[in-house]
Amino acid sequence: MVLEILLSALFFILLGTTYVKGYDVVKHHSPDHLVHFYLIMATVRMLLVGTVVALYVLFAENRDDAIRFALIFIIMYIVMMVTTLCLRH
Known about the structure:
Layout: H1 2-29, H2 34-59, H3 63-88
């Protein structure tokens, strides 16, 4: 379970960094499109998180581990969303 948590943290660090850097680029080049950027990134992040959770649940051998992983992943997603919004808004 420790490996899953470390990989999940890395996943969210990459998603958060992508959002923050992308936000800076869009704000610098075309501030009018920040709303579109935010909606696209929110959609991409939700799809990626949903896909990772679904794949883990499909391939998990133990139902309890799958539930714990899904809860941890969703909590990490919420923390990442709050952190990125606080950093850029």
